[in-house]
């Protein structure tokens, strides 16, 4: 655990539960009031899938279940912006949790000038023992109101690209004001690809890697405002290569799919309205990474904010249809 604390004109303190590390900045002066908020996932596994984890696989869940804590920490950021024109950043604190992302909670306690504020929350994954920006840039002048994808580009196919956000206005000029419990949701829709091909015969070729290529010159939203919940800007969709793995996959409306091949996943900033995308999928053999064993062109694939779009069917036998299922797996918010 590391501890780095910067104070300017307001005295602020943070009390943490479990293992965490922190950085904070604050500005301004005057009559002050104390604000407290607990950040984390206090419901534990019950915050997904009715409290029951699937047997054998977690691809239908998010980064908190799939990211390796030996490689990544979960970073929480809280900002307080004055509710005025122009708005000013009054407080920012960063806390990283290094293990047990689901059950570890963090408590912020900040003493701020008695004004009207918009509190903004963001949580994402960063390399272990760091608190600096990684997949997403949060340190521009506008902070969490202008979150952008890092210069390294989209991290498609990686669960550590998952993130969470929330915002809440608080008027500290009024007595009895507090933040209380805030619900986190995802700024993304998640697309998941599952191959269920039943292949007979003597050949041992099975999926080893898959390459997902979006339409020519297709761009995706590249900027997110965690105060308004709006995505904007553009970034090249490009393509990504995914290392295929097997799991007993959980899909809404299906019995558990034993030995299913997970051949791709992607988190994409989404608007409140449904958006559709087109992309191609090439599947390569586990015996020879240069041998293509399947190819599909897919169009009109819907994406909705805070929802999971699953494409399940034949991807490497090139016969049969692919079914599209949109589920509310991500519609159960974590609590902070």
What does this structure look like?
The protein is mainly beta. The chain folds into two domains: 172 residues, Immunoglobulin-like; 143 residues, Immunoglobulin-like (Sandwich). Helices cover 1% and strands 49% of the residues. It is built from one helix and 25 strands. It has a five-stranded antiparallel beta sheet, with no helix packed on it. A hairpin with a 4-residue loop joins strand 15 and strand 16. The chain is elongated and about 75 Å long. The N terminus is likely disordered.
TL;DR of this structure?
This protein is an all-beta fold and 336 residues long. It has one helix spanning 63-66, and strands spanning 13-16, 20-26, 32-40, 72-82, 89-97, 105-113, 116-127, 136-137, 147-149, 163-171, 183-184, 188-195, 207-214, 219-220, 223-225, 230-232, 235-236, 239-243, 245-249, 257-269, 275-285, 292-303, 308-313, 322-327, 334-335. The protein is elongated, with a radius of gyration of 22 Å.
